[in-house]
C-alpha cells in the first residue's frame, strides 16, 4: 500500500523565500524583546512577592505602636512621636483623582510634600507659616495636628502588603505571558513566518488582561478580610469568573458580527 505523500500547504508552497526569511527575522527580534520583557516583569513580581512578609511585619508593628514616653530616644524608639513643622504651602487638586497635599518644613520625615487624602478637617484651613504638630513613626509622617484638630495622612504602611500582593500577582501574569509569547516566536520563527502566530496567543492575551483587572478587587477583598493570602485567594476566585464572562462576551460579539441579515422583502 503506497504511503500518502505529504502535500505542503498553499502558504508553504507559494511563499517567497526572501520574504519568509524577513518575517522569520522579525519574529526572532520581537520574540527576544518579549522574552526579555517578560523575564524582567516576572523578576519584578517575584521580588515584590518576596518583600510582602517584611511589609506585613512593618504594618503589624505600626498598628501596635503607642505614643512614645517622655524619656524615649527619638532616634531609637519604635513608637509614635510628635515633632514640630512649619507649613510652607498646600495643594488641593479637584476633579478626577482629587489629591490633597501639605508642604512641610521640619525634621525628617516631617518635611516635604505630604499626601493628606482629603481637604478636611485640617488641610483646607492651613496657611503658609502655620506651625503644626506632625506625628511620625519610623520614616512615616502619619498625622498632622494644629490647635487640637488632627488629620491622618496617607503616609502609612497600612494596606501596603495587600496592594503589593495584588501588583505582584498581576505582574506575574503579564511576565509569564511575555515569556510564553516571546519563547514561541523565538523558537518557531520560521513556522510563524509561514503560518502566522498560533491563534492560542490571542485568548491567552485576553486572559492576561482580565487577570490584571481582577487584581484591584482582589486587593480590596484582602483588605476587607485581612492579609496578603486573602488577596491571592480572592484573585483565584475572581479569575475563573472573569474568564467565563469574557468568553461569553466574546461569543456574543462573534455571533453579532456573523449574524445573517435578512434580505429585504419585495412588495
Describe this structure in words.
The protein is an alpha+beta fold. It has helices spanning 10-14, 17-63, 160-187, 189-195, 201-213, 215-225, 228-257, and strands at 81-93, 99-105, 112-115, 131-137, 140-146, 149-152. Helix 2 (17-63) packs antiparallel against helix 3, helix 3 packs antiparallel against helix 5 (201-213) and helix 3 (160-187) runs antiparallel to helix 6. A hairpin with a 2-residue loop joins strand 4 and strand 5 (140-146). 53% of the residues lie in helices and 16% in strands. The termini are far apart. The model is unreliable at 4-13 (pLDDT under 50). It has a six-stranded antiparallel β-sheet with strand order 3-2-1-4-5-6, with no helix packed on it.
- What is the average per-residue confidence, as pLDDT, rounded to a whole number? 82
User: Using only CA atoms, what is the Rg?
Assistant: 28 Å
Question: Strand arrangement, largest sheet?
Answer: 3-2-1-4-5-6
Shape: elongated
Treating each run of at least 4 consecutive H or I residues as one helix, how many helices?
Answer: 7
Order of helices and strands: HHEEEEEEHHHHH
As residue ranges, the low-confidence spans are: 4-13
Amino acid at each position: 500500500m503506497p504511503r500518502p505523500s505529504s502535500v505542503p500547504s498553499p502558504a508553504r508552497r507559494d511563499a517567497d523565500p526572501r520574504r519568509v526569511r524577513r518575517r522569520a527575522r522579525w519574529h526572532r527580534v520581537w520574540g527576544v524583546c518579549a522574552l526579555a520583557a517578560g523575564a524582567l516583569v516576572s523578576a519584578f513580581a517575584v521580588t515584590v512577592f518576596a518583600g510582602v512578609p517584611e511589609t506585613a511585619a512593618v504594618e503589624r508593628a505600626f498598628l501596635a505602636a503607642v505614643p512614645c514616653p517622655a524619656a524615649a530616644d527619638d532616634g531609637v524608639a519604635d513608637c509614635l512621636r510628635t515633632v514640630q513643622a512649619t507649613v510652607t504651602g498646600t495643594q488641593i487638586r479637584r476633579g478626577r483623582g482629587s489629591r490633597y497635599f501639605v508642604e512641610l518644613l521640619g525634621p525628617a520625615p516631617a518635611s516635604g510634600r505630604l499626601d493628606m487624602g482629603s481637604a478636611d478637617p485640617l488641610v483646607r484651613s492651613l496657611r503658609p507659616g502655620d506651625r503644626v504638630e506632625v506625628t511620625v513613626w519610623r520614616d512615616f509622617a502619619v498625622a498632622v495636628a494644629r490647635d487640637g484638630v488632627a488629620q491622618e495622612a496617607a503616609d502609612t504602611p497600612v494596606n501596603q502588603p495587600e496592594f503589593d500582593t495584588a501588583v505582584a500577582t498581576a505582574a506575574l501574569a503579564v511576565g509569564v505571558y511575555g515569556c510564553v509569547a516571546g519563547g514561541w516566536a523565538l523558537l518557531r520563527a520560521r513556522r510563524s513566518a509561514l503560518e502566522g502566530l498560533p491563534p492560542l496567543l490571542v485568548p491567552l492575551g485576553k486572559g492576561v488582561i482580565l487577570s490584571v483587572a481582577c487584581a484591584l478587587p482582589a486587593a480590596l477583598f484582602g483588605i476587607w478580610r485581612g492579609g496578603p493570602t486573602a488577596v491571592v485567594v480572592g484573585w483565584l476566585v475572581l479569575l475563573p469568573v472573569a474568564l467565563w464572562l469574557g468568553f461569553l462576551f466574546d461569543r456574543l460579539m462573534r455571533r453579532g458580527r456573523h449574524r445573517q441579515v435578512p434580505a429585504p422583502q419585495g412588495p
